[in-house]
Amino acid sequence: MRVLNQLSYFMSPQHPLFPVNLICQWQPAAKFDLPDHLLTWLLEPGSLTAKLKQHSQSFRVEVLGQKIEACDELEANEVIKAGDKVLVREVLLYCDDTPQVFARSLMPLSTLTDEEQQLAELGTQPLGQVLFNNPTLERKNLEIAYFDQNTSVAKLVNTLSINVNETIRMWGRRSLFFIHQKPLMVAEIFLPGGFAYQQGFSTDD
């Protein structure tokens, strides 16, 4: 078994707000009454990276930071337990230089072995592109949540060139993924003014 060299995880410099964290109440989508165009993005079964690329001329990933830490009890689930050592990776996804999505992934160190060690060394390569190109990929437990102006992700948004309505709610989703039956968790928050909130960008046309 090829074991990860933990020192390769650390990246510098890191954004001053990293880790942003996502402390909220995740729930099944059926708990919310949301517009169809927003649900199209929240419930997208395929690669979000691919969907964003369809609606833009240029796409890029900005890495806010990544580090190893113990999984917090509020983010734990049936397969990633509280206290498990995980690699936390946080990024912004840009379309045509406009920030569209904040993403936070938790990758247990037990997942990052053998072929999956590459997930710790992505740099500015999008995680979704790697996941959805893996034929063993499984996805489970999609949940959604909202984030208001009192959340840490809102503080991040306030550092970006986004015109934010003080009353806006940002919506996001998280899922468990399995590659070669090894778990990782990915959360994606759709940022204000992004495609997810605009009816004209709800389809793949």
Give the averaged pLDDT, no decimals. Answer: 88
What do we call the CATH topology? Chorismate lyase
Instruction: Give start-end ranges of low-pLDDT stretches.
Output: none
Radius of gyration: 16 Å
What key attributes describe this structure?
Chorismate lyase; 205 residues; alpha+beta; globular; 4 helices
Task: Characterise this structure.
The chain is of the alpha+beta class and 205 residues long. The protein has a single domain (23-200), classed as Chorismate lyase (3-Layer(aba) Sandwich). Helix content is 13%, strand content 31%. It contains four helices and six strands, in the order ααβββαβαββ. The protein has a six-stranded antiparallel beta sheet with strand order 1-2-3-6-5-4. A hairpin with a 2-residue loop joins strand 5 (170-179) and strand 6. It starts with 35 loop residues before the first helix and ends in a 15-residue tail after the last strand.
